[in-house]
Design a protein that fits this description.
The protein is mainly α and 272 residues long. It has helices spanning 4-12, 15-30, 35-53, 58-85, 89-113, 120-148, 151-167, 170-220, 224-228, 232-246, 250-261. The chain contains eleven helices and no strands. The protein is flat, with a radius of gyration of 30 Å.
Length: 272
């Protein structure tokens, strides 16, 4: 739940309140002393009472929270559209096709059933489409990293270090063991991202195929019950499961992106 000050700030920004403040200031500006002072004092008292009572009411807090959710949703939608612009043509085509198919499903359902709105279960296609975009973004970033990663070179270095370990003295052994730990860690990260790619591929295909199935059902449905029989919940659960699994991969990709953005500092300080 938001802090009290957040509700107070929201109430302060209400257009009605702002116009009331402007009205009080204008009235005070044109009034003669001491009436102008009384107007300002009365306005300040009314404003204090307003900010002390209205933001504390449950009804206003629900209104403010609904606005915040709408703003957050609008911001997410804007960010997602910007993200789509960064996709390559083939990826954008897949995203836009599903967007178009979703709209067709909604329009055809309302036309065939003569309904004025689409049922909530079919509306979950909105959330599925959003997840498709998010998963596709993570998928392409994972694939980009895998292409830049030379797995065989890491395996060769591990084998070489393991051979050198047998004939190394104690001090050298410590260095080689540290290097081996790093190499094995890199290999483990690679394998983790590789598993994430396979999971993402399967989930992206599942979403695409489910959109196609829903469209097929809408185009050929004999009754509304045939649409209700579709297992929307199973697909949503699968998407959430994928998201939970990928929460371990997302920080890895964020760290990789940060490393790519940063320039490696020199090993020795530059001379002035």
């Amino acid at each position: 739940m938001a802090s009290r000050m957040a509700y107070v700030w929201e109430a302060l920004k209400e257009p009605v309140n702002l116009w009331a403040i402007v009205g009080v200031l204008a009235a005070a500006l044109y009034a003669d002393p001491p009436l102008n002072a009384l107007i300002l004092l009365g306005g300040a008292a009314a404003e204090a009472l307003y900010l002390a009572t209205v933001p504390a009411t449950a009804a206003y807090q629900r209104l403010a929270e609904r606005r915040w959710r709408q703003r957050a949703a609008a911001e997410r939608a804007r960010a997602r559209e910007e993200l789509i612009k960064s996709f390559d043509p083939r990826e954008r085509e897949a995203v836009e096709y599903l967007r178009w198919l979703k709209k067709q499903i909604y329009a055809n359902y309302m036309r065939f059933t003569r309904s004025k709105e689409v049922p909530a279960d079919i509306r979950t296609l909105d959330a599925m489409w959003e997840r498709f975009v998010d998963f596709l973004d993570l998928y392409r970033r994972c694939k980009t990293h895998l292409r830049a990663f030379n797995r065989q070179a890491i395996l060769n270095q591990i084998a070489q270090a393991e051979r050198a370990l047998h004939s190394a003295d104690e001090k050298t052994r410590r260095v080689i063991e540290n290097n081996l730990n790093i190499l094995r860690g890199r290999l483990a990260e690679y394998e983790g991202i590789e598993r994430a790619v396979k999971l993402l591929e399967a989930q992206l295909q599942t979403i695409e195929n489910f959109f196609g199935l829903v469209n097929d059902k809408v185009m050929t449905m004999s009754s509304v019950e045939s649409i209700a029989a579709l297992d929307f919940e199973s697909v949503l659960s699968s998407i959430e499961m994928t998201r939970s699994v990928l929460e371990e991969t997302a920080p890895i990709m964020s760290a990789l992106e940060a490393l790519e953005r940063e320039q490696a500092p020199p090993l020795t300080p530059e001379r002035q």
